[in-house]
Predict the structure.
Amino acid sequence: MQVREFLKNRPRAALSLAALVVALVWAWAIWPRPPVMTVAFLSVGQGDAAVIRTPSGKTVLIDAGPCETPRGGFDAGTKVVVPYLRRQGVNSIDTFILSHAHEDHIGGAEAVLHNFRVKSVVDSGLAEPSGVYRDLLGSIRDQKITYRRVRRGHVIDMNDGVVIEVVSPPAGLSPQEGDSGLNNTSLVLRVRYGRVRMLFAGDAEQGEEEEMLSSSEAIRCDVLKVPHHGSAQGTTSEWLAAMDPKTAIISVGWRNQFGHPAKSTVERLKTAGIDTYRTDQNGTVTVSTDGQRISVKTSR
């Protein structure tokens, strides 16, 4: 009797199960997702450029890659940064941050200013005079773009859960002579969203790293933009231990003349158990987070 009842009711049970599955799929489809922040570390050759898209759709650009067109070379602004922003549907840039005045970080900035409405530009103001940097400041003035010089303690609140903290250089610091001095006055930024922290280290070298450690600045992070393209002059073991990142991105050009990233830096990252991506090998690296977890996607 029980077997007959089971066989009799089996079609009804199957229909009920199917209905339950459909209901669960429908509920999953319409259930509100946590808002997401994405950070794309663009493949701009031997230079840096990163695009932050906040949960409310605001855009922050950190550096714009190199421009070598006066010598007939590569303009990352025209060839990479502007096309990427167009594909993302970006019409304006809320904040454009210049980590420091080296041409491999600001060379592509003119192309960005000419193609988008930029609401504000943020800079450390610590720069040795150069033609590219002077011309860029002139374009910012001509376009009447809000320009701010920031140092440690300055906070940029995007008002949607994303907060950008300036952790270096300290107030009152002036650049030393030579390229190393300018590298060691790079803007170092910590981007917070929910429980996730990302550190953008510009071209900071050991001197700036040691200063941050001695100042007890909060530099713990989940994702690290490795400083100075992974050169041997930075990313010390002590600094890595203080940050304790799980993921690292090296922005670097394929077979560049500087030998970046240094084998010693790559080995330190490996020894620390950090998942490391390189723009010369992985293309554009996009990190997405809901403020709790992160996921990484590469373009190749």
In short: The chain has a mean pLDDT of 90.
